[in-house]
């Protein structure tokens, strides 16, 4: 019995000693790094996906039917206006043309004869030396002969046109593509595409903007005498910068009512033919806003459900756990992280423009965000190694 009482007293003393040990702080300060916001001038580009287009492009179609008897160009080469490209079998169309010429000559001979007969009967008719009916018939025959000559002349024009269609020439200067037909292929009128020609200097670049941006681009269209570092540049598919700047050529006539968007067309010089029709590029529009803006490291911005937040460090008075409740010194000053919702703008390298939500001079947490929540106590006494931002953007 005495042993039980002794053990009970010993355990009570041990528990009492444990209670007197120093407890760890309930809310330790989280080490962070801070960044003080300052207004600064930012140079950046608004970027838009785009596609290169030819200012002029045409598909070559056969206007007559027949077999291809000649191809007179190198595929993918530059051709000039009027240059001979294809030839369709001419034999039938030459025969039709020669027949039309012969018919014209016959009609012209008949007209001469009819004219002579009409002149003769007209003379005799003045002296009532010929029957009225013969005179009338001569005049009608003359009119018919004149109509036959006109019909024959039109037939000659048609036959000549068809014969000319046997030779297909370039409608304008540009680059020709791969031939869609080979020697001996029979082409059909209006449906067989022989090839495609497109202009390539200058080259058009089309991209789509939201209708809310339309006033901005209408003002940019009025900018004159653009210098080398122009408002408009493009990134090629390999992400390299195209050498030459461009300018606005045209803004489409109407906004798409379904999407609220509109197409803008730029033109770029292309003397070296680096740009090809159908390329996917990125249009860069140089920022024209010269007003200083608030800029933060991208890693300091936290995204939650499509909204963006930062942690602003502020000096605050909090309860001193070492002082009694009635002590006059029960408040101490410490840093506290307050979560603020912000509106982000353009990304500029590792930084992002902040449109609203913070002020010039605010101290923003840039490292150590992983353990923070609104109202967390923080400290800068222990430097935090720079990070990619953890929960940040």
Q: Strand fraction band?
A: 25-35%
How many beta-strand elements? 24
Structural class by helix and strand composition: alpha+beta
CATH superfamily of the largest domain: Efflux pump adaptor protein, beta barrel domain
3D structure, described in words:
With 393 residues, the protein is of the alpha+beta class. It folds into 3 domains: 25-43 and 291-379, conserved putative lor/sdh protein from methanococcus maripaludis s2 fold (Beta Barrel), CATH 2.40.420; 45-89 and 167-286, Efflux pump adaptor protein, beta barrel domain (Elongation Factor Tu (Ef-tu), domain 3); 91-165, Orthogonal Bundle (Helix Hairpins), CATH 1.10.287. It contains 4 helices and 24 strands. The chain has helices at residues 2-19, 91-126, 132-165, 214-221; strands spanning 30-31, 33-36, 39-40, 45-53, 57-61, 66-71, 78-79, 84-88, 167-169, 174-176, 186-187, 193-198, 203-210, 232-235, 247-251, 261-268, 280-286, 293-297, 302-304, 307-319, 331-348, 351-356, 363-367, 376-379. The strands form 4 sheets. Strands 1, 2, 3, 18, 19, 20, 21, 22, 23 and 24 form a 10-stranded mixed β-sheet that branches. The chain has a 6-stranded antiparallel β-sheet with strand order 14-17-4-13-16-15, covered by helices on one side. It is rod-shaped. The model has no long low-confidence stretch (mean pLDDT 84).
């Amino acid at each position: 019995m005495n042993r039980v009482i002794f053990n009970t007293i010993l355990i009570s003393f041990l528990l009492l000693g444990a209670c007197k040990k120093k407890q760890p702080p309930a809310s330790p300060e989280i080490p962070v790094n801070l960044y003080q916001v300052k207004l600064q001038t930012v140079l950046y580009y608004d970027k838009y996906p785009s596609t290169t287009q030819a200012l002029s492009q045409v598909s070559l179609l056969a206007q007559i039917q027949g077999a291809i008897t000649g191809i007179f160009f190198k595929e993918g080469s530059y051709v000039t206006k009027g240059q001979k490209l294809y030839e369709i079998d001419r034999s039938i169309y030459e025969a039709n043309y020669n027949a039309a010429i012969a018919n014209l000559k016959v009609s012209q001979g008949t007209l001469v004869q009819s004219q002579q007969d009409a002149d003769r009967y007209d003379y005799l008719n003045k002296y009532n030396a010929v029957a009225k009916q013969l005179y009338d018939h001569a005049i009608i025959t003359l009119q018919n002969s004149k109509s036959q000559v006109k019909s024959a002349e039109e037939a000659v024009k048609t036959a000549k046109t068809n014969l000319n269609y046997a030779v297909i020439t370039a409608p304008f200067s540009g680059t020709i593509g791969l031939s869609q037909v080979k020697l001996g292929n029979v082409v059909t009128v209006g449906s067989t595409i022989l090839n495609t020609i497109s202009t390539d200097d200058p080259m058009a670049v089309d991209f789509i903007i939201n209708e809310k941006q339309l006033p901005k681009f209408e003002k940019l269209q009025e900018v004159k005498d653009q210098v080398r570092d122009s408002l408009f540049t493009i990134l090629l598919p390999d992400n390299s910068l195209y050498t030459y700047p461009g300018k606005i050529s045209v803004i489409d006539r109407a906004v798409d009512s379904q999407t609220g968007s509109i197409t803008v067309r730029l033109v770029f010089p292309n003397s070296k033919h680096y740009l090809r029709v159908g390329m996917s590029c990125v249009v860069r529009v140089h920022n024209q806003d010269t007003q200083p803006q608030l800029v933060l490291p991208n890693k300091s911005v936290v995204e939650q459900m499509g909204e963006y937040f930062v942690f602003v460090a502020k000096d605050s008075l909090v309860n001193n756990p070492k002082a009694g409740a009635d002590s006059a010194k029960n408040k101490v000053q410490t840093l506290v992280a307050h979560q603020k919702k912000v509106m982000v703008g353009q990304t500029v390298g590792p930084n992002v423009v902040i449109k609203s939500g913070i002020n010039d001079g605010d101290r923003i947490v840039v490292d150590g965000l992983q353990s923070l929540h609104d109202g967390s106590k923080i400290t800068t006494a222990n430097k935090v190694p720079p990070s990619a931002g953890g929960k940040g953007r």
